[in-house]
Amino acid sequence: MSVAAVPPRDRRFRPGLLPTLVVAALLPLLLGLGCWQLQRAGEKRELLAEQAARSQAPAADLVELAALDDPAFRRVRLVGTFDAGHSLLLDNRQRGGRVGVELLQPFLDRPSGRWVLVNRGWLPWPQRAALPAFDTPVGELSLEASVYRPPGSAFLLGDGAPGEGWPRLVNVVEAPALWGELERDGLADELRLEPGPASYVGDWPVVASGPEKHLGYAVQWFALAATLLGMYLWFGVKQAREVRDGLHSDA
């Protein structure tokens, strides 16, 4: 007695093991990256809103500022003198497509007796054969600035170039490291000078990239996830159709 062969189950979706494993690995990754970019966009919106609100508050003196739990973006009044002998030039800063540096100088606040690191703004640096020239106001000054605290990881003191002299060209700056080197009591945050006679070009962006850029990245990741899923479904249906057509032709 002969037993008739039983055809395999007629399925409409046969993606195969390898495509399934690839999609199972990549799809959560792509969706996770998209969600992460949405989270980053939300964080940037909150940061910009916080900066806008605190920039409208009255300026505090340095003693009042030091008592705050979170002084980021707070405005502060300073009365004192610049230290022209220990200037930092923060390299690779651009304004309007032009390359330059930002000038940071220690400032001794007389009422509090503490040092602060003041960012006086941007200077063009078209010829890198020599460091850019700048002037330092002399005598006691009354200034207003705001506390800048970069999002993400803290700044680290970069290697000086050329040599270790002054002014020092750096890539990143950490104020506490500078105060430790100079053996001074200073504020840990950078202060960005408001426009005035002692400032150069300001217009600092609060964040390097705005929320809209992160939203664009999120759309790209989600689009890749949708494309991957669509190709997987199409391939599975195509494979199932080819199997059915082969069975029918053998019947």
Strand segment count: 7
Unreliable residue runs? 1-6, 153-163
First-last Cα distance: 21 Å
Strand order of the largest sheet: 1-3-4-7-5
Helix fraction, binned, reads: 25-40%
- Helix tally equals 4
Query: Topology as H/E string?
Result: HHEEEEEEHEH
What is the strand and helix layout of this fold?
Blueprint: H1 17-55, H2 62-66, E1 75-82, E2 88-95, E3 98-109, E4 114-124, E5 141-148, E6 168-170, H3 175-182, E7 186-193, H4 211-250
Parallel strand pairs: 2-6, 4-7
Antiparallel strand pairs: 1-3, 1-5, 2-3, 3-4, 5-7
Describe this structure in a few short sentences.
The chain is an alpha+beta fold and 251 residues long. The protein contains four helices and seven strands. Helix 1 (17-55) packs antiparallel against helix 4.
Question: Which terms would index this structure?
Answer:
single chain, 251 residues, 5-stranded mixed beta barrel, 37% helix, elongated
Care to describe what's here?
The chain has about 250 residues and is of the alpha+beta class. It has helices spanning about 15-55, 60-65, 175-180, 210-250; strands at about 75-80, 90-95, 100-110, 115-125, 140-150, 170, 185-195. The protein has a five-stranded mixed barrel. A hairpin with a 2-residue loop joins β2 and β3 (about 100-110). α1 runs antiparallel to α4 (about 210-250). The longest helix has about 40 residues, at about 210-250. It is elongated and about 95 Å long. The two termini are about 20 Å apart.
